[in-house]
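Quick illustration, no need to memorize.
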Amino acid sequence: MMHPDFAGQVDPYLDDELAVSEARALEAHLTECAECSRIRDERVALREAIRAGLPALRAPDAVRRRVQEALRATSPVAAPRRSASRSSARPRSETNQQW
């Protein structure tokens, strides 16, 4: 029997988009539900197949420089950080860039 509430959380779970409590509830459910676990395994396999089939692309250096210059030109001057703990926190989009 499929559980739509949990099955609908599989993709956000794999993308680390669930709150900790939701992720733990889904993980507990997956240990008990073969159908939802199968859905997760299929999604993981699909993601791996897509990644394996995609070529590694890198923007030309000139494009990368122009983008970086444009970002610097539009970014406000960085204010001093208030605490050391906040300085290490970075949005996921910044930590996964492959420029």
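DSSP finds seven helices and no strands in the chain.
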